[in-house]
Amino acid sequence: MVADAQDIIGRLERQNADLQRLLTTARDQMGEMRQQLADASQPPQTFATFVAWAGRHADVVANGRRMRVAVLPTLEARLNPGDEVLLNPMSVVVDVAVPERSGQAAIVREVIDDDRVLVVSRGEDERVVVLIGGDAAARVHEGDTVIIDPRTGFASEKVERTGVEALLLEEVPDIDYARIGGLAPQIERIRDAIELPLTHPELYREHDLRPPRGLLLYGPPGCGKTLIAKAVAHSLADAVGADRSYFLSVKGPELLNKYVGETERYIRTIFERARAKAHGGAPVVVFFDEMDALFRARGSGVSSDMETTIVPQLLTELDGVESLGNVIVIGASNREDMIDPAILRPGRLDVKIEISRPGPEATADIFGKYLTPDLPLTAADLAAHDGDRAATVRALIAGAVARIFSHADASQHVSGAVVRNVVDRAKTRAIKGVVAGGERGVTLAHLVDAADQELDEARAVAARSLGG
After folding, report:
1. Distance CA 126, CA 208 (A)
2. Residues forming beta bridges with residue 46, ordered by sequence position
3. Kind plus residue range of the DSSP H or E element containing 453
4. Class of residue 251 by CB neighbours under 10 A (exposed 0-12, middle 13-18, buried 19+)
5. How far apart, in whole angstroms, are the C-alpha atoms of residue 127 and residue 290?
6. Which helix (H) or strand (E) holds 371?
7. DSSP-based three-state secondary structure for 441
8. Contact at 8 Å (CB) between 149 and 60?
9. Cα-flanking dihedrals φ and ψ of residue 349, to 5°?
10. pLDDT (tens digit, 9 = 90+) per residue, 201-241?
C-alpha cells in the first residue's frame, strides 16, 4: 500500500512539473506577443543623419532640416558624424540605423584639408563636402569619384567606376625626350607648341597669342607617337615645376559602347577627371590613341551613325578646355584623313605633326638608344677599335643601318619599333651563342641576321594587309 501511494505521489509530482513548464512557456509566449503588439502599435520613427555634438544634445539633419535634439544616454559614446540614427516621435535619438549605401556621385576637384574636399557634380556644380572616416583624406585624391549627401554635405565613400576607369591608364610617365631617337625636329616643334605657353605665359599675353589647345600626331605605326605623348607629360611636369603630371591614355576602340549615350558619357567623365586633376596646377595630358577608330568623319559612310553624336561631344569638351591651360589633348592616328575635319580645324587639335618613317640618320639615332657601350662586345670588335667601346658600338650601328637600307624597300617598312626588334633579336642571338659555348658579345653578324629577318616579316605583314 505504501509503495502504491509513493508511485501515485511521484506521478502527480511529474504531472505538476509538466504543468509548471507549460504555464511558464505560455507566460513567455504571452509576454512576447504583448511586446510584439506594443512594437506594432508604436508610431513610426524618423531616419536622420548625425552631424555633430552640441553639448549633451546632437545636431542632426532629417528630411532636409537641421535640428538640435536630445540623445539617449546609452548612445552618447556610439555616435560619429555621418551616422544614420532613428528619432522617436518626440525627436529624441533612440537608436543607430544601418547606413544607406546609395547617394549622389561627385568628382573630387581639389583636396582642401584633412577632411574637406571640393567636388563637382551635375555638370559644373561645385561644393565643399566633409569626408567621413579617419583616413578618408588619405584615400581620396583629385579626380576620384565619391558618394555625397547633398542634404548633410558629407562624402561617405570612394567609388571605383570600373566602366570608364578600365579605359584610363593614369600614370606618371618616366619617359623623357632623351629616350626618343630620330625625331628631333618633331620634338622641337612639340616643345614650342606645348611648353612655351606654360613656361612663358606673359610673353603669349604680350603678343596676344593663344596657346594651342591640342595636337595630332599622325604617321605609320611603330614610329613613336605614343612614346612622344608620354614624354610630353613627363616634360610638362619639369617645365612648370609640378610635383607630378598625369597621363590619361584612352584607347579609341575600347571607348565605343553599344548603348546609346554611354560613349558620350565616357568622354565627359574623362574630361571631368582631367579638369579635376588640372585644378591643382599639375599638367594633364589626355591622350587618344587610334583616334580614327572613334572620331571618324561624319557622313563618310565608313562606319555607323555613332560618330554623329560622339564627335560633337568631343568638340564640346575641346572647346571647354580653353580656360585650363595645363590640360593638353593629344591624338594619335595612322589615318589622319579619316578623322572628322572639325576636330582638326584651328582652335582644336590645331597643331598637326607627322611622325614619318626614319631615314638612315634617324635610324642610327634610334639604334643608339638600344645598342649602348655597356653591352657585352667581342674581343675582336673591341681590338679593331683600340678597346674604345663607344667607337665599337658606332661601327656596329653603322653596319646595321647600312644593311637595313641595302634593301630597296626599307623606307616602306623601317620604324622605331622595327629597330628595337632588330636589337632585341640580335641580343637574343648573342645569348644563345653564349649558351652554346660561343664567345660573349653582340656582333655585326647578329645585327645583320636580325635586320634581314625583321624586314622579311614586315614585308609579309604588309603583303597580308594588301591581300586582305
Report:
1. 31
2. 87
3. helix 444-467
4. middle
5. 36
6. none
7. coil
8. no
9. -85, 75
10. 788 888 888 878 788 888 888 888 888 888 877 777 776 66
Integer Cα distance of 120 and 137 in angstroms: 17
Residue 67 DSSP SS3: strand
* End-to-end Cα separation, the chain, in angstroms: 114
- 388 to each of 247, 397, 401, 444, how far by Cα in Å? 40, 14, 20, 16
Question: Which residue do the cell numbers 609640378 mark?
Answer: 242
CA nearest to 410, candidates 401, 398, 397: 401
Helix (H) or strand (E) holding 106: strand 104-111
Find, among 330, 371, 351, 365, the residue nearest to 184 by Cα.
365
> How sure is the predictor about 40, in pLDDT bands with cuts at 50, 70 and 90?
low
* Contacts with 64 (C-beta within 8 Å, 6 or more apart), sequence order: 151
pLDDT digits (tens, 9 = 90+) for 280-294: 667 778 888 888 777
What is the rounded CA–CA span in Å between residue 15 and residue 173? 86
The pTM score is: 0.65
Q: Is 52 helix (H, G, I), strand (E, B) or coil?
A: strand
Q: Which residues contact 123 (CB under 8 A, 6 or more apart)?
A: none
Residue 147 has pLDDT above 70, yes or no: yes
Contacts of 78 (CB under 8 A, 6+ apart): 96
Q: Let me know: does 242 contact 282? Beta carbons within 8 Å.
A: yes
Backbone angles phi, psi at 451, to 5 degrees: -65, -45
Q: What would the DSSP string read from start to end of 171-218?
A: E-----GGG--S-HHHHHHHHHHHHHHHH-HHHHHHTT-PPP-EEEEE
Question: How many residues in the chain?
Answer: 468
* CA pair distance 39, 33, nearest whole angstrom: 10
Provide the 3-class DSSP secondary structure of residue 62: strand
Residue 405 has, within 13 A of its CA and on its CB side, a CA count of 15
* CA separation for the pair 423, 367 (Å, rounded): 8
